[in-house]
Amino acid sequence: MEIDLNADLGEGCNSDEALLDLVSSANIACGWHAGSAEIMRDSCQWAVAKQVSIGAHPSFLDRENFGRSEMTIAADDIYAGTLYQLGALAAVARASGGRIAHVKPHGALYNQAARDATMSDAIVKAVADFDPTIAVFGLAGSELIKATTRAGLTPIEEAFADRGYCADGSLVPRKMPGAMIENEDEMITRILTMIHEGRVRAIDGSWCTLNAQTLCLHGDGPHALAFAQRIRETLDREGITVRARTGAVSAAL
After folding, report:
1. Neighbours of 65 (CB within 10 A)
2. Which terminus of the chain, N or C, has less C-beta within 10 A?
3. HSE-CB for 155 with a 13 A CA cutoff
4. Helical residues (DSSP H) of the chain, grouped into ranges
């Protein structure tokens, strides 16, 4: 049994380099919600050195709100913005000896795409036009996963170690109680249930079925490094291999 463990990086936290010793995939901010050219460079160089798969983490152009404010934006603009951010990170990754292997939208873009087929199609079209070999990470069972499948790209269904779930399989909005899992023991139990049983307990007590191919730990959380260490220790003890779903690290030169 194996799982891909991913983290959102390049968002200004000082634990990024240490996290890369524990995860198999890194979603690197492309500058629109957080990060910079220098942070992207450092993140890519660390990822290549540690053999961690590189992913682009595009967002709405919304640094003020860390990309977490929902927006109404035309599909053509979603397409252009995604393409722009992919290009920026791809250049940095290639100069670092790596390549983009996957794309995972950030924040509000991720959550809106999870339920909006038009937005999902725009994101996936940008990925397909840029490089159809790039995989797309999306919330398990979401519209983004469906759009990726329709386009003939590689969908990778994501579950969250540190986020609460609603009964319909969506994530609990961050402003609501139960949005973040703070208790390590509870988080570990949830992770093992996701992997072994393919389900997670929602905030109303019901069970949500999900296909957890990659597991996200938010790299900007206050306990991100401690959580990642505990998760990795548990997975190793359980005999669950941590491996990137994409398998791509080095650039094809």
Report:
1. 13
2. C
3. 24
4. 16-19, 37-49, 75-95, 107-115, 117-130, 143-150, 184-197, 224-237
DSSP states of 169-214: SPBPPTTSTTSB---HHHHHHHHHHHHHHSEEE-TTS-EEE---SE
Q: Which of 127, 110, 66, 69 is nearest to 216 (CA)?
A: 110
**Measured between alpha carbons, how far is 167 from 183 in angstroms, rounded to an integer?**
21
CA distances from 152 to 113, 127, 155, 166 (A): 18, 11, 9, 29
Distances (CA, A) of 13 to 44, 104, 106: 15, 19, 16
Both tokens assigned to 4? 């891909």
- pLDDT-derived band at 168 (thresholds 50, 70, 90) equals very high
* Token pair recorded at residue 85: 């951010």
List of residues 6+ apart from 42 with CB closer than 8 A: 10, 16, 17
Span 172-222, pLDDT tens digits = 998 899 998 888 899 999 999 999 999 999 999 999 999 999 999 875 666
Find how far residue 1's CA is from the centre of its chain: 21
Three-state DSSP class for 123? helix
The rounded distance, in Å, linking the Cα atoms of 193 and 198 is 7
Average pLDDT of the chain is 94
The DSSP bridge pattern shows strands 199-201 and 2-9 to be unpaired
- How far does CA 24 lie from the centroid of its chain? 12
Tens-place pLDDT, residues 66-107: 999 999 999 999 999 999 999 999 999 999 999 999 999 999
